């Protein structure tokens, strides 16, 4: 394949970023854009000097593309992924990879054996910091518990989309990038328990602020807990993260991981090297025709299952056993 022709769905900020990044990579070219917004869609298509579709389905059916890049509402991710795979197209999608459990089941079926590449945009797959964390954890015994807390007054650049259950799903899905690393570190979960509160939740799915908690139990050992609160009364965003293992504790603060036990405290050292970009990784894997993406895909799918189960648990008011 001399050139990988990319069709991109979306025309928001992330779509612009992905389009520019893919356009700069050798053997990669954005040749089609699909956007609901004619103004931003036309502007992006003009910059890329490519064709503009008004509907993602017509882009998927375009015989002049080899891969699809999905940068639209979370609610559409799974549907577009499935249609693209069925059309034998490689797929790069923003997270979450799907919105519903039946979509995850179908994606697993489509990627079970030989299939085009499917990559979700989780940065841990190219992060040297995450690899250093994995290496450190290997010698620290069993997981006891991890705890993550994020408090923020912000509602995102487009709160009408982010703070909308129908468009973006619950926080456990749009904050899935907090869940994915723990699944990659400690393996699959066997149960999920969640509680949710949305202030001024409306019939169209929008709300003003939220408070969500999520706890999972891992098959191997230990639990992980996440607490997210957004749009709340606080001066500035605060975030805390701890991982307690049988032989020590890891704490994330000031953009750095610290290891401690009863005798010592030390910073984790990350190699001073430039990470490969997610876009470059995707292009390289297409050119090399390798299967290294499959393990990362299963991690992404399981993290998404947890986000979906969190929504179900909060609705039912009870713990859910995985798989769903």
TrEMBL record:
Pfam families: GFO_IDH_MocA (PF01408)
Positions of transmembrane segments: none
Keywords for this protein: Oxidoreductase
Domain Gfo/Idh/MocA-like oxidoreductase N-terminal intervals: 4-120
SUPFAM superfamilies reported for this sequence: NAD(P)-binding Rossmann-fold domains
Record EC number: 1.-.-.-
The keyword Ribosomal protein is assigned to this record: no
GO MF entries: nucleotide binding; oxidoreductase activity
Entries under PANTHER family matching the protein: BILIVERDIN REDUCTASE, BILIVERDIN REDUCTASE A
Protein name (Swiss-Prot/TrEMBL): Putative oxidoreductase YjhC
Native species: Candidatus Moanibacter tarae
Gene: yjhC_1
